[in-house]
Amino acid sequence: MDKNTWIGFLLIAAIIVGFTMLNRPSKEELAERQRVHDSIALVRMAEAEAQRIADSLQFVAGGETAVVEPEVVVPEEKWVTLENEHLRLTLSTHGGTIQRAELLEYHASNDTVNPLCLFRADESSFGVTLITINNRILHTSQLYFEPVACDAPNKAIMRWQVAEDAWLDFVYELSDKYMVSFQIAPHNMQTELAQNVNSLELQWRQLIPQQEQGRKFEERYAQLQYMLVGGDMEKLSESKDDDAKESARVKWIGYKDQFFSTVLIANEAFSSSQFKSTLQGKHSGYIKEYETHTSVPFDLTGKNPTGFRLYCGPNHYHTLKAYDEGVEKEDRLYLNKLVPLGWKIVSWINTALVIPMFDLFTSWGLHIGIVILLMTIVIKLIILPFVFVSYKSSAKMRVLKPQIDAINEKYPAEKMQERQQATMQLYQQAGVSPMSGCLPMLFQFPVLMAMFWFLPTAIELRGKSLLWADDLSTYDAVFHWSFNIPLLGDHLSLFCLLMTVCNIAYTYITMQSQATDPNMKAMKYMMYAMPLMFLFIFNDYAAGLSYYYLVSLFITILQTMIFRWSLDDEKMLREMEENKKKKAGKQKSGFMARLEAMQREQQRLARENAKAASKRR
Predict the structure, then answer these.
(1) How confident is the model at residue 175, as a pLDDT?
(2) At residue 548, does pLDDT exceed 70?
(3) Which of 189, 263, 387, 573 is found 20 to 30 A from 51 (Cα to Cα)?
(4) How many CA atoms lie within 13 A of 551 on its CB side?
(5) Of 372, 370, 432, nearest to 579 (Cα)?
(6) SS3 assignment, position 200
(7) What is the CATH number for 216?
(8) CA-CA distance, 115 to 93, in Å (whole number)?
(9) Could you tell me if 59 and 284 are in contact, meaning their C-beta atoms sit under 8 angstroms apart?
(10) Tens-digit pLDDT profile for residues 236-291
(11) Which of 306, 339, 372 is the endpoint of a domain?
(12) Residue range of the domain that includes 473
């Protein structure tokens, strides 16, 4: 063959290889093909098994073929209970899993007699997929186990007996008040399960029942969350149906409600995980449904059982934080992240200030209403210097208003730059900084937001009463109606209403003490509209939060009255006039000099542009 023929063959080979590489299926396509192949194989095996049973049940009697109907024997379902003073778990032999989890110290909002139930048999399913040595696919949720006697307290073994000396154990031990250890331990299963099995496919589904009176906020805080190996937290949407595929290794998966969670923790890690969260109907009695499909390592020999921990308990910050005490950083669970405490700086304020202060006051045995009152007073004392600076700056601006009005009359609107320059010069000579009234508010905002995040999620408020409010963790409705008012709903909360009235009173006092432009009436009405908006915003919020804002506003009004009594307008004016005299002959500060230079330059450019425009005409 000549050179051209060889070149032709090489080009054809390159095209074939390139086409093969481009059309090679992805990992997802290969997995889907394998799933379809396994499903077809499972159906064929089921058909073959059914045919084999049918053939074995046929026999010849009197020259005719007769068929004997098989007698289906369903094993009797049995239950085993593990219980301590905090948690009661009910295990079923059908599937060998936990069928019911009850928190003995808590109650649902509509049931003050029975313990709060995180899930029941028809609301939860858990199982792993097994592949037998003859390629049959079994799901443990469909198998029947037998309880095995064990001497250890609060320990149970559910056994699926395959042969005389081959079985699969589900081992449970309630080792902590809310934490149960769980192991999948095979024994001599090498001859029963496929030899190439090194992982187990796990399926976990759970319906989240409505436990609180305020469904709106229970939906907001109910969320499927999971933590990756390394500490990064991921979560599905709380406001809509959502799903996610996670290729990274996952340490734990949390099915979270507003105040309670069920968390499955792998001793090693989950891999190839798929998560799904589905909203439930308003009148279904459930908030959401969570589903997980994942895989975990599996040692067929049984030397290293597949281990988990299952947390069934409250979203209590200190309870969850305690699981990381004395644990190396790389092994920490960070379950306390299930408690929403706000953005990073807000979360830091909550963990460094708000929660320790709350713990201190509650440790004194005080009523929860007194605790919130004391916390409000302490917070007000902390931000008092910033509030005073802000009020004093506002008072100085009010005192200088006649001089500012004179500047506005001297320089009409057409000479805005001259007006601004004269105004800034007046402020600089009088020793007034317009920003001094804004900056203190920025320091207060993170503290206010910390309380905004803490109180609605503090389980300590759940079930605690104050005056007419039976439960400070939800709204305190005193008026109900059968229809729904947009934005307001079907009720009116009294603490929220009182907070609104107090806010309007505070706005009135503030407007009276500030210098306002009579031409800006729209702004005045807007100031009164804001408190009314809060009535609609906070009507569904926790009564404890509205109570905090009510007390905080009342203290703020008292502070304002004290500030007004302690500050003399005439004295402030004399002090500012003295400052003007002292600074009249002094050189301007670098900032003010640069600012005035910039303004003069802008004026010069404006004059030149005006002259150029007039010449073009």
Answers:
(1) 81
(2) yes
(3) 189
(4) 19
(5) 432
(6) strand
(7) 2.70.98.90
(8) 23
(9) no
(10) 999 999 999 999 999 999 999 999 999 999 999 999 999 999 999 988 999 999 99
(11) 339
(12) 349-573
| Local structure of 198: helix, strand or coil | coil
Give the three-class secondary structure for 585: coil
Residues pairing with 255 in the sheet: 224, 262
Closest CA to 476 of 295, 213, 254: 213
Q: 36 lies in a domain?
A: no
Q: Which of 403, 431, 436, 393 is nearest to 580 (CA)?
A: 431
- Tell me the C-alpha distance between 594 and 605, whole Å: 16
- Find how far residue 146's CA is from the centre of its chain: 39
Give me the torsion for CA of 244, 245, 248, 253, rounded to 10°. 50
| String of DSSP letters for 442-509 | HHHHHHHHHHHHHHHH-GGGTT--BTTBS-TTS--EEEEEEEEETTTEEEEEHHHHHHHHHHHHHHHH
Exposure letters 305-327 (e unless 16+ CB within 10 A, then b) = bbbbbbbbbbbbbebbbebeeee
SS3 of 315, please? coil
Say how far apart CA 563 and CA 384 lie, in whole Å: 11
Q: Give one DSSP letter per residue of 111-151, joined into a string.
A: BSSSPEEEE-GGGEEEEEEEEBTTS-EEEGGGSB-EEE--S
The closest of 399, 376, 407, 294 to 546, measured between CA atoms, is: 376
Give the pLDDT band of residue 57 (cuts 50, 70, 90): very low
Residues whose CB falls within 8 Å of the CB of residue 471, separated by 6 or more in sequence, listed in order? 109, 213, 461, 462, 463, 464, 465, 543
Tokens representing residue 11 in the block: 């080009």
Q: Which helix (H) or strand (E) holds 438?
A: none
* DSSP, residue by residue, 15-45: HHHHHHHHTPPPHHHHHHHHHHHHHHHHHHH
Residue 344 tokens read as 């990073």
The residues pairing with 480 across neighbouring beta strands, listed in sequence order, are 491
Residues 312 and 360 in one domain: no
Q: What angle do CA 413, 414, 416 make, to 5 degrees?
A: 65
Cβ(154)–Cβ(174) below 8 Å: yes
Do residues 97 and 113 touch, judged by C-beta distance below 8 A?
no
Q: How many separate domains does the chain show? A: 2
**Residue 479 in contact with residue 493, Cβ under 8 Å?**
no
Which of 310, 339, 368 is the last residue before a domain boundary? 339
- Residue where the block lists tokens 């105004």: 423
| 235 and 94 within one domain | yes
User: For residue range 420-478, what is the model confidence (pLDDT) as tens digits?
Assistant: 777 777 777 666 666 665 666 677 788 888 999 999 999 999 999 999 999 999 999 88
β-bridge mates for residue 582, sequence order:
none
Residues whose CB falls within 8 Å of the CB of residue 33, separated by 6 or more in sequence, listed in order: 25
Angle 437-442-448 from CA coordinates, rounded to 5°: 120
What global pTM score does this model have?
0.77
Q: State the Cα–Cα distance between residues 222 and 242, nearest whole angstrom.
A: 13
Residues 510, 418 within the same domain: yes
More confident residue, 29 or 59: 29
Residue 192 exposed, middle or buried by CB count within 10 Å (0-12, 13-18, 19+) = middle
